[in-house]
């Protein structure tokens, strides 16, 4: 077949990186229906008492053809191909159903945080999807959080802020992920209905070696406080980082020091550390009446 020959010629002329991208894309197309995706959950610890009040859901993919593929590699492919919309929908439903199940199993009501991509926002259907999933799973809105990145917020700001506002009005909390890695102006922070800022792990990583990251974290905490936002530090790996971040005023910490992301079944081992999540006040934004 001419078509196949052309494809073969095309792929053999491509560099390894492009070939890998294509392999991932073609395997990922079937990953959902073949049930190859799972969610792992990483606890966020309250800086005051060390208790777990929320968990971040993180996608894990084992492909029979490619083995384990990290989300750092497959999420960009999923985004460019549009597959992220279906995957993100599965993540949302699975995480909410799981949060409900833990509670039915006797854990205190924890909040589950789901990473949301710009494409999911762009569909315009996310608020309605969230409403449906909450109704279907019976998870209270206050126990769901969505995590957005700065680049998501920067794309079509008016539309995005209206979508985020609609989600926030349901009582779902909203976190800005990877704070400090994007291009957003600080002024943008107050335009979105945010509850939380997550300081990117690159700043936490540099704490010991680069005094500037201490300054950035202290300034972020100050700014966030002024805007009524919670502050989370990601990627906490050492006790020295933990001490610095608590002293800087972070509200919650997340990182390998406490726990890596783990399978849902493994969380019961941490059950003594759980405490009910605390409700956040609904944020006020420039759009709010
Ligand atoms: P993220 O949302 O910023 O998630 C935090 C990442 O940091 C996770 O990587 C987590 O495993 C890792 N991490 C946690 N603690 C530490 C630590 O102490 N040290 C270090 N070095 N890393 C730590 P992961 O699971 O590989 O995910 C990477 C990224 O992929 C996520 O970054 C998120 O942007 C994206 N992602 C993962 N799952 C989903 C998903 O379901 N939907 C979407 N849209 N994106 C996802
Ligand atoms: Mg995240
Ligand atoms: Mg992050
Ligand atoms: Mg990230």
TrEMBL record:
- Domain (EAL) spans 21-275
Q: Which domain of life is it from?
A: Bacteria
> What is this protein's name?
Diguanylate cyclase
**Taxonomic lineage from the root:** Bacteria, Pseudomonadati, Pseudomonadota, Betaproteobacteria, Rhodocyclales
Parent-protein residues present: 423 to 711 of 714
């Amino acid at each position: 077949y001419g078509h196949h020959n052309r494809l073969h010629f095309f792929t053999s002329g491509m560099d390894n990186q492009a070939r890998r991208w294509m392999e991932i894309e073609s395997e990922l197309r079937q990953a959902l229906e073949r049930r190859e995706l799972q969610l792992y959950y990483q606890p966020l610890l309250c800086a005051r008492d060390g208790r777990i009040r929320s968990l971040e859901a993180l996608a894990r993919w084992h492909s029979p053809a490619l083995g384990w593929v990290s989300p750092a590699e497959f999420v960009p492919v999923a985004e460019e191909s549009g597959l992220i919309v279906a995957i993100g929908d599965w993540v949302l439903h699975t995480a909410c159903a799981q949060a409900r199940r833990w509670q039915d199993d006797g854990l205190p009501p924890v909040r589950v945080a789901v990473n949301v991509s710009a494409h999911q926002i762009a569909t315009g259907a996310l608020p309605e999807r969230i409403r449906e999933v909450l109704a279907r799973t019976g998870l209270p809105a206050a126990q769901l959080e969505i995590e957005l990145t700065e680049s998501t917020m920067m794309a079509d700001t008016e539309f995005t802020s209206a979508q985020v506002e609609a989600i926030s009005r349901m009582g779902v909390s909203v976190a800005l992920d990877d704070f400090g890695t994007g291009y957003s102006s600080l002024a943008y922070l107050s335009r979105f209905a945010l509850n939380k800022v997550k300081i990117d792990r690159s700043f936490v990583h540099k704490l010991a070696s680069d005094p500037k990251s201490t300054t950035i974290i202290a300034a972020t905490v100050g700014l966030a406080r002024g805007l009524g936002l919670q502050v989370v530090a990601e990627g906490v790996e050492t006790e020295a980082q933990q001490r610095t971040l608590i002293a800087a005023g972070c509200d919650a910490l997340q990182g390998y020091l406490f726990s890596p992301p783990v399978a849902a079944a493994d969380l019961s081992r941490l059950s003594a550390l759980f405490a009910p999540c605390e409700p956040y006040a609904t944020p006020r934004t420039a759009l709010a009446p």
